Amino acid sequence: MKTKVLSLTAVIIALSCLVFSCESMAKIADVGAQVAGATGLINQNTADAISMSARAVGTAAEEITPEQEYYIGRAVAANILSSYAIYTGSPALTNYLNLICKTITINSPRPDIYAGYHVAVLDSQEINAFATSGGHIFVTRGLISAARSEDALASVIAHEIAHIQLQHSIKAIKSSRVTQAILVTGTAAAGAAAGMDVNELTNVFNESVGEIVHTMVNSGYSQTQEFEADNTAMSLMASAGYNPSGLLDMLNVLSTIQTSGSGFGKTHPTPAQRITNAERTIRSYTVTDTSSSRQARFTAAAR
Question: What pTM was estimated for this model as a whole?
Answer without folding.
Answer: 0.71
